[in-house]
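Listing S7. Sequence submitted for prediction.
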Amino acid sequence: MAKFQKGRSGNPKGKRPGTRDKRTILLEQMLADDGEHVVKAIIEAAKGGDMAAARMILDRLVPVRRGRPISLALPAIDGAEGVCKAVS
């Protein structure tokens, strides 16, 4: 006889809201303890020419731009005809 019924979760309620992953908790603790030393080591590696370290720093400080504002000269829109002119 099967322990669980087919198609039914063994944990129907699932994890409680707000439950944090053990790995995340461990990493946060490690950063709290040694974060300053890690950041200094990455900066020193970047200064020494380590491009992966430099990219890591730049990705955090200057994130990739997803878009930029542009400026267009459009004719005045005074109704449906003006919209057609602006679109063309």
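Caption to Listing S7: primary sequence and predicted structure tokens for the chain studied. Helices lie at 22-47, 51-61, 80-87. The longest helix spans residues 22-47.
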